[in-house]
Amino acid sequence: MAYEADAHGATYPVSMARSHFTLAALATSAVDGLDIAGATPIGSPGGDFDAALLTGRDGRHWIVRVPRSESAEAAQSADLVALRALSAGVRARLPFAVTTFAGQAPAGDTRAVVYEFVYGAKAELASLDHDLATSIGEAIAAIHALPTSFVADSGLPSRTGIEAARDAAKLFERAIATRVVPAVLQQRWERAIGDPTLWQFAPAVVNGALEAESFLASDGVVTGLLGWQSLHVGDPAVDLHWLLRAPGDGIAETAFGAYARVRGSVDRQLTERARLLNELELAKWLLHGTATKSTEIVDDAVELMSGLVDTISQNDTASIRRPESTLDVDEVEELLSRTATAR
């Protein structure tokens, strides 16, 4: 039997890819009365899942997925927990569709899971325009405006600002231990992580795993959102930092502006915290390279960090935080009020 390594360096046995015909048969076992007229393979060969798009004779569409690794199976299980937590009442507050679990069936040592299909094309970071960036910002704001109580009631995690700062500090310390992080970044990250005002935020419902491909869209409007396996209450910046990597001129600013119009601007350190989290992705990439003993990944991380140092030097942005961005008394009261009313 062949073995592969997952993103964390763990090895797992790899089964032969299941054909879309096999997946369709599994789906009929998973969902009572499902009458399939056609099946089409989706996803990339060798990916985390064997998956197919199914068309029922009634014209409805479904997705069936079978995980191909232990990490994919764990993500699928977490996704199902989150989807069950997203009740009809919660979903009604969102301006986009969220898939629904339809059924499951055994598939060897794992399981095939069938979901209702959500219409739309996956967004791509490199081709985001201002219309879609606006819709994405509004969609993320809608998630963050959800009441936090349903997350707690479902037993999902909750992270405070202090805990978020500690997580960032632990990541920073592990990266520093590699002895390849440039001194400029060490100082920059250490100052930001150690600044308590940076972590003054009201914990909100966050998806926790967003990237461009998470969003389904049509005609510049978000129609659906995939991947809820990291749903929790925590730092809103976790859902926004990836937008800072958008290459288009002003795309990130457009998304952040749309977000602020929906949510308000009391979290004055949101952009700075997002910038820090985005930069710390380089530290994660470095640690992934060291964990998997990949010289290629480590070298790539070092090169990316060197590029960031050059950017910082050229733009004279040695500090992530704006010194003047502290909360006044009224803003603190609004922050506390929002924390209370979100529950």
Q: What letter string, H or E per element, gives the SSE order?
A: EEHEEEHHEEEHHHHEEEEHHHH
Largest sheet: 5 strands, antiparallel
Assembly level:
single chain
Span between termini: 50 Å
| Mean pLDDT rating | 89
Number of strands: 12
Q: How much helical structure, as a percent, in the residues? A: 40-55%
Number of helical segments with 4 or more residues = 11
What is the CA-based Rg, rounded?
Answer: 21 Å
Pairing-aware structural class of the strands and helices? alpha+beta
Shape: globular
> What are the segments in which pLDDT stays under 50 over at least 5 consecutive residues?
1-14, 323-340
| Order of neighbouring strands in the sheet with most strands | 3-4-5-7-6
% residues in beta strands: 15-25%
Describe the structure.
By secondary structure, the protein is α+β, with helices and mostly antiparallel strands. The chain is built from 11 helices and 12 strands. The protein has helices at residues 20-30, 70-85, 88-91, 130-144, 149-153, 161-176, 183-193, 251-263, 270-291, 295-315, 329-341; strands at 3-5, 11-13, 36-42, 49-56, 61-67, 101-107, 110-116, 121-122, 204-206, 215-218, 221-225, 232-234. It has a 5-stranded antiparallel β-sheet, with helices on both faces. A hairpin with a 2-residue loop joins strand 10 (215-218) and strand 11. Helix 4 (130-144) runs parallel beside helix 8 and helix 6 (161-176) packs antiparallel against helix 7. It is globular and about 60 Å long. Residues 1-14 and 323-340 have low confidence and may be disordered.
